[in-house]
Write a structure and sequence with these properties.
The protein has 206 residues and is α+β, with helices and mostly antiparallel strands. The chain is built from six helices and six strands, in the order αββαβαβααββα. 46% of the residues lie in helices and 14% in strands.
């Protein structure tokens, strides 16, 4: 009888220990799964970079490189190929005007000087920067001199050109919504302050 009781006690202790080990293991597995799930959820919740903004570009007259997604995703973006000696160069003033008017609401204008048309921006980046600031008071972000014609287009303009057509002259404008989608293009002849442009910008902003 005593042996039977002794055996029962030993069996109980053995079973209890195994249960404790099993419980500890189960809790560890559950905790690991919970952490993994949280990390996966956090990873999935990160905004996806739209291909239209998935580019690193260098700021004008500087070594600093900017990732367009990190800086501007979630904003309404107007991308323009500019030039300093063009009949449309006065549009710098209009670009600055709409940037100043709507930047607090989420608009950003990005200028990319180009010498692709008529050799109308031959100067150095330092000269272009000085010209834009002193002549038109440009404060919107300006970036590296770029190639925009189809045959030699830099990656950003190739991406946009395949969707909305390549620039045929200076001051071609691409308008991108908050999701990164290209929604409209405007030719050199359309001023940035034209009502149809500002109405579209307001629609996208508000």
């Amino acid at each position: 009888m005593y042996k039977s009781v002794e055996f029962t006690i030993l069996l109980y202790k053995f079973t209890h220990r195994r249960y404790a080990v099993f419980k500890t293991t189960l809790l560890a597995v559950a905790a690991t799964a919970a952490i993994s799930g949280t990390m996966a959820l956090a990873e999935n919740s990160k905004p996806t970079c739209h291909p239209n903004l998935d580019f690193n570009v260098r700021t004008l007259n500087d070594d600093k490189t900017v990732n367009l997604c990190q800086e501007y995703q979630g904003k309404v973006v107007m991308i323009v190929n500019t030039a300093s000696k063009c009949a449309f160069t006065g549009q710098y003033e209009d670009l600055e005007k709409i940037y100043a008017s709507y930047k607090d609401d989420g608009l950003v204008v990005l200028g990319f000087p180009s010498n692709d048309f008529g050799n109308q921006d031959p100067g150095s980046e330092q000269q272009i920067q000085k010209f834009c600031r002193t002549t038109y008071g440009v404060q919107f972000p300006m970036f590296q001199k770029s190639h925009v014609k189809k045959k030699y287009a830099d990656p950003l303009f190739k991406q946009l050109g395949e969707q909305g057509g390549y620039p045929r002259w200076n001051f071609y404008k691409y308008l991108i919504d908050r999701d990164g989608e290209l929604v409209e293009t405007y030719s050199s002849f359309t001023s940035p302050s034209d009502k149809k442009v500002t109405r579209k910008i307001e629609t996208l902003l508000f």
